[in-house]
Amino acid sequence: MTTPTNQPLAGLKVVDLTQIYQGPYAAFLMASAGADVVKVEPPGGERMRGAGGERTPMAFAMLNSNKRSLTLNLKTEQGQELLRKLVMQADVLLENYAPGTLDKLGLGWDTLHQLNPKLVYVSGTGYGLTGEDSDLLAMDHTIQAASGVMGCTGDPDQPPSRAGGAPCDIMGGIHMYAGAMSALVGRGINGKGTRVEVSMLESMYFTMCSEFTAYYAAGGELPARNSARSPSGVCPYGRYRCKDGWLAIISVAETHWHNIAKTIGRNDLLDNPDYANSARRLRREPEVNAAIEAWTSKQTKDEAYAALRMARVPVAPIRTIDEVQELPHLHERGMLHRMTHPDLGDIILPSSPIRFSDYDTASVRLFPQPGEHNVEVLNEWLTLSDTDVIDLQTQGVL
Amino acid sequence: MTTPTNQPLAGLKVVDLTQIYQGPYAAFLMASAGADVVKVEPPGGERMRGAGGERTPMAFAMLNSNKRSLTLNLKTEQGQELLRKLVMQADVLLENYAPGTLDKLGLGWDTLHQLNPKLVYVSGTGYGLTGEDSDLLAMDHTIQAASGVMGCTGDPDQPPSRAGGAPCDIMGGIHMYAGAMSALVGRGINGKGTRVEVSMLESMYFTMCSEFTAYYAAGGELPARNSARSPSGVCPYGRYRCKDGWLAIISVAETHWHNIAKTIGRNDLLDNPDYANSARRLRREPEVNAAIEAWTSKQTKDEAYAALRMARVPVAPIRTIDEVQELPHLHERGMLHRMTHPDLGDIILPSSPIRFSDYDTASVRLFPQPGEHNVEVLNEWLTLSDTDVIDLQTQGVL
What we know:
Strand content of chain A: 15-25%
Largest sheet of chain A: 6 strands, parallel
CATH class of the largest domain in chain A: Alpha Beta
Order of helices and strands of chain A: EHEHEHEHHEHHHEHHEEHHHHEHHEEEHH
Oligomer: homodimer
CATH superfamily of the largest domain in chain A: Crotonobetainyl-coa:carnitine coa-transferase, domain 1
Structural class of chain A: alpha/beta
Helix content of chain A: 25-40%
Largest interface: A-B, 144 and 144 residues
Number of helices of chain A: 18
Strand order of the largest sheet of chain A: 3-2-1-4-5-6
């Protein structure tokens, strides 16, 4: 390990049994903050590795930087025994299997907690470990539906729509990480381990704050889905067509509206009482938006963005992901890194969105091959010799 | 304070200078895990309180449970001095002002770190504290645009769309909380405080994993926005109309497809080589979806959901937020609580999505009135007398 030691989690050992997006994001954040994260994979490697067809999917590369890989066949008794030995050395175990899966393998919380009372055991699920829906199969897509996010996304008279990305997976993952850290703080004070439980469904609840405000304010009437309108009723608000793309604008304060009107050359609207506050403008929303678009549609999104930004209006170009990964701001800040991978070629990899002023920032290390660190990890953690590891490999345990 | 002491963060003191959604979510999670969170508000109260018109917005109620409120006029020197004294007693300070705001008040990281070298000072911003875009005004709406989320949401030949909810605010907030906890873990090991920095923009990057996978797999071609289609190309995938609403279905494994076909009474498709795997079905996506909808459209969403759930298919009803807040599963699990507030009436309040097996769960306490705990907090934290507090109030400091 060449991780700098001046990192907040340096010295902590993590057994990472997770897969796909949710759990691996939690483990990635730990690795990025300096913990020794050992990704335990079945001998062929985590199934996400093969999900991109012939090449490793970019998502796998993004989510598995800075980890070490140990292959372990948990269907063998020896594999289970090795895992228990690793757990006895560990501070944190992360898992996002279906509820009950690890219990069946003799690797459940009750067993491992007895072996290591200081262990923080983190379970990430779709619906939680308890409750009538806990056995449901969960994917980001279905959690978007079950949690209400999909019902809030889309346009009037159109079907509910998927929000772009996999917000439920990543929201579940960051809550797993946050729960693990909270439990470590508690362990520092109380000296005991705990099981941490997070569900994707519950992790999404607070994202619908504005919709709940609108719903209660309307005395229990549901706000209509409207992707071009603010759930809190501010105006102007929306997306505006430019010559070569789109711009998002929101006017939260009256000064924003004043600055928009001046920038688009419509000072006349500032003297018009029909446009004197957000509520009145909302009644003339089509006119407000038409006035703005009459101006944006004659410019490129960069030009319109620059002018409105200069006028201190909350504005942003609606970016495509290729524009996001090339954004100078994100490279300048050290969030994104240009790397070359033997298989994937030139790629841009993100680092952790969490920064610490008084610790070193980990550089991004490319994701490991399955079992790449078998010798290293079993030697460091369990003092097994090279020959021991070769024997285990021959027996199909690794 | 009547918080149970068997909580992971019991004994920790938090000065919470945050407003709107992002920072308050971080502070809420701390309060829910047992920390003593003092919400410092300007004398009239945080501006979100008034954002709902005549009544407190539901979002404010959701995000400010379990905190105590202290009013403090930070525009006065005495107010600033009191804040510095509070910080000398605190473990964590949370803020989500525009970069530089607190520095101008003599309450920046450099000053407070000198006064309390063990302080964890957490700054949440839209774009970060550094970099060419750090001065941009940020709202969830514009960060959705800038981060790429909006560009991934919507349908082909339609404008990019806002994802429902305020995912960027909440994602920023949970990363602030996670960063604070990581810094406290580091403090436990290294004995030093640190500044933690989180931006909403960077917090959203990993949600677009699937889109990045598709983009790289296609050799740099952007995946089309399509809210009814999987970015990873699995089929069946989508939303299906029922008699009274919509259902979301995703088929990740071949067994899911088999079980769907059997449930909808289309065993014939299982013998048809054109439907033999996900890639082939994708070529006949309209036929696949029509076959499923021919079945769902004759049932209520509850009926269709029950049948597909029984068949172990990843399925969920597309819920509206009123259905979500009444979901028995979430009440049974203790995530949601029916409460009565003198002003808001009967409301349903969420608790923290993070649970700990070996600690007590905090009950949900209704959000405080502005300055409700002025006497209590200044007495406990700074040993000021009741008379001192009345004097400060008279002088306009509180």
